[in-house]
Task: inverse folding
């Protein structure tokens, strides 16, 4: 293995998404790479699937003596361990109903690890759906892992490898490396780390107006804490562009929701940044990189239970207004992305109909809307939850088919 150059930063250099079919081993692999189980929400544990995006940071290290790459603090050879690169992993759910969440995750990732189980025929439904989502979002840096190789013979592994190569032919992942691993038995993790070290670090825009996409929001106070000891509301997410500093005055749009005569009203919020945290590091200034937490002066009641997820944050007066109707130039797929070729024939995608509900993903927001106008491929959708549309926002479009939200196409806001 080559010797790599160390570029350790206080913020992660890359956001890497874990994608792939349910049960193929994303969460297990993330645990191998970060020492953290991302399935921590009780609801997720109950249902046994990952619902919200899970985050885990990791530092890739190299042994000075034997050159092996690891995320652990020790090498078996006893050599000295040097930190090389700080990265952030995002666990993206694999359940088909949660495709929309997956798309919202794709808005904030630089690269993806596509996990494919070697003991199942390839591709399964979400393997296809997620690869299409990556193509849609233009995520070119993809590493394919062929997981669970401990469960198959060499011959079966080769057959599965050929299926994978056939599946990715003529797609954005055509030239992606395929690394055989066992996430559970920690086999070949060093080879995967080598591919992660080879991923290019994207050029970050630090000079534009800062825009931060809120993926989660929470209240870190313990019940019964005295008011004087309360910590302000926390917002977690990704800084897309620009810089944020402690003490900055910020605004949050569309903001807080309230009910008035049965109608939901959104009120933008303004506050001050009290602290910025990247992984375990407290920082004074944040630049675009991995997931970041902003501590504010907001009443923590306003941020609890992800109530501000999907909002956009910027400097006071600099965030575009949220819109509750979107004009979208749509491109629909020919058929619903299904498991078997035969089934797809029965799942042709009908054109969008007036008044039909669609689920849209814009930035990190998921919103349901009703189609109010149709003109060729252009539609106008009236949204339940208004969204802040950023330049070059791509929209994922899902339709409810047999009780499941299925991706039927994509579009651009105009
Ligand atoms: P996810 O739905 O993609 O996040 O999959 P999980 O990480 O939850 O894994 C699903 C199941 O596969 C769990 O029971 C894991 O223990 C198991 N699993 C994951 N990776 C491996 C592997 O490399 N080998 C074997 N034998 N089992 C694995
Ligand atoms: Mg999982
Ligand atoms: Zn070593």
Result:
């Amino acid at each position: 293995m080559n010797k790599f150059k160390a570029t350790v930063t206080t913020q992660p250099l890359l956001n890497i998404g874990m994608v792939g079919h349910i049960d193929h081993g994303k969460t297990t692999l993330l645990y191998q790479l970060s020492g953290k189980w991302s399935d921590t929400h009780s609801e997720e544990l109950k249902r046994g699937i990952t619902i919200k995006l899970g985050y885990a940071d990791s530092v890739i290290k190299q042994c000075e003596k034997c050159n092996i790459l690891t995320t652990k603090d020790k090498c078996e050879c006893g050599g000295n361990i040097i930190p090389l690169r700080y990265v952030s992993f995002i666990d993206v759910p694999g359940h088909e109903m949660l495709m929309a969440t997956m798309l919202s995750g794709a808005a904030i990732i630089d690269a993806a690890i596509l996990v494919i189980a070697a003991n199942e025929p390839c591709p399964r439904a979400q393997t296809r759906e997620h690869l299409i989502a990556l193509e849609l979002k233009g995520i070119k840096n993809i590493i394919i892992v062929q997981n669970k190789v401990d469960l198959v013979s060499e011959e079966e592994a080769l057959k599965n490898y050929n299926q994978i190569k056939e599946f990715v032919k003529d797609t954005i992942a055509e030239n992606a490396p395929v690394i055989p691993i066992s996430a559970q038995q920690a086999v070949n993790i060093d080879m995967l780390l080598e591919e992660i070290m080879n991923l290019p670090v994207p050029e970050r825009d630090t000079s534009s107006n800062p825009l931060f996409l809120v993926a989660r929001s929470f209240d870190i106070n313990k019940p019964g804490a005295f008011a004087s000891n309360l910590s302000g509301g926390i917002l977690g997410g990704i800084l897309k562009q620009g810089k944020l500093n402690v003490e900055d005055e910020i605004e949050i749009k569309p903001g807080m929701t309230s009910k008035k005569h049965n109608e939901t009203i959104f009120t933008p919020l303004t506050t001050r940044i009290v602290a910025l945290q990247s992984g375990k590091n407290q920082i004074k200034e944040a630049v675009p990189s991995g997931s970041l937490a902003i501590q504010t002066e907001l009443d923590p009641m306003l941020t609890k239970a992800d109530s501000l997820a999907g909002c956009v944050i910027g400097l006071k007066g600099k965030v575009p207004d949220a819109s509750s109707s979107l004009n979208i130039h749509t491109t629909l797929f020919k058929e619903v992305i299904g498991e078997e070729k035969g089934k797809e024939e029965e799942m042709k995608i009908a054109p969008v109909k007036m008044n039909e509900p669609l689920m849209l993903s814009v930035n990190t927001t998921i919103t349901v809307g009703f189609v109010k106008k149709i003109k060729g491929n252009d539609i106008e959708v009236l949204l339940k939850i208004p969204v802040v549309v950023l330049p070059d926002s791509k929209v994922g479009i899902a339709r409810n088919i047999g009780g499941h939200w299925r991706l039927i196409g994509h579009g651009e806001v105009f």
